[in-house]
């Protein structure tokens, strides 16, 4: 089939218009935007595949974990039990501070795992990022195991909130000895943390990067 001169000219003009568009700033902007979105999606997918948690990063909102975590720190979170530490509690994959001290297992400057959990399992509340101190069984009197430094002036289990334990779970605490000198369960931040309430374990922190998320929120 022989192309006529008019058809050739129309085709040439069409190709020229396409070439001009592909070289235009609008096309370059669209390409850069789509490329950036694709990269973000790929990174997010990789993080999810690695961590098993969505979203796999959290921003630290308070100083309750100082000096080991600062406000605005971006923390990568791993699904608990994905890569369990030594001497983890049952099948939870979480090492408590009490067990970590015996095993020499440390994370974020202290013994045991730092966990992210939903207070009392309530998903409408802001997740808490604190250290898992020890495990209690349902109905356990854990006064003697608590030690004297994090229970205030209580002289017995009856003087402690959540003692005896209303159910099995982790006793947790922030590392900040000034603002979080007592266990979360005594401050009634949460009852003993059930494994089902745990979002994951904190693995790596990046200082200041979380300020962007906090500013957005």
TrEMBL record:
<dbReference type="InterPro" id="IPR001733">
    <property type="entry name" value="Peptidase_S26B"/>
</dbReference>
<dbReference type="InterPro" id="IPR036286">
    <property type="entry name" value="LexA/Signal_pep-like_sf"/>
</dbReference>
<dbReference type="GO" id="GO:0016020">
    <property type="term" value="C:membrane"/>
</dbReference>
<protein>
    <submittedName>
        <fullName>Signal sequence peptidase</fullName>
    </submittedName>
</protein>
<keyword id="KW-0812">Transmembrane</keyword>
<keyword id="KW-1133">Transmembrane helix</keyword>
<keyword id="KW-0472">Membrane</keyword>
<dbReference type="GO" id="GO:0004252">
    <property type="term" value="F:serine-type endopeptidase activity"/>
</dbReference>
<feature type="transmembrane region" description="Helical">
    <location>
        <begin position="26"/>
        <end position="49"/>
    </location>
</feature>
<dbReference type="InterPro" id="IPR019533">
    <property type="entry name" value="Peptidase_S26"/>
</dbReference>
<dbReference type="GO" id="GO:0006465">
    <property type="term" value="P:signal peptide processing"/>
</dbReference>
């Amino acid at each position: 089939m022989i192309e006529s001169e008019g058809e050739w000219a129309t085709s040439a003009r069409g190709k020229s218009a396409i070439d001009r568009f592909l070289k235009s700033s609008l096309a370059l902007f669209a390409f850069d935007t789509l490329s950036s979105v694709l990269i973000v999606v790929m990174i997010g997918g990789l993080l999810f595949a690695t961590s098993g948690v969505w979203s796999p990063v959290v921003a630290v909102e308070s100083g309750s974990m100082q000096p080991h975590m600062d406000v605005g720190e971006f923390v990568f979170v791993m699904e608990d039990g994905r890569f369990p530490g030594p001497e983890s509690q049952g099948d939870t994959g979480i090492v408590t501070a009490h067990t970590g001290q015996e095993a020499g297992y440390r994370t974020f400057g202290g013994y045991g795992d730092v966990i992210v959990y939903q207070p009392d399992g309530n998903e409408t509340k802001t997740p808490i990022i604190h250290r898992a101190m020890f495990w209690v069984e349902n109905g356990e009197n854990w006064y003697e195991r608590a030690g004297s430094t994090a229970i205030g002036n209580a002289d017995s289990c009856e003087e402690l909130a959540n003692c005896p334990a209303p159910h099995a779970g982790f006793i947790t605490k922030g590392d900040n000895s000034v603002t979080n000198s007592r266990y979360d369960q005594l401050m009634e931040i949460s009852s003993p943390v059930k494994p089902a309430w745990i979002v994951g374990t904190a693995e790596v922190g990046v200082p200041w990067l979380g300020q962007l998320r906090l500013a957005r929120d």
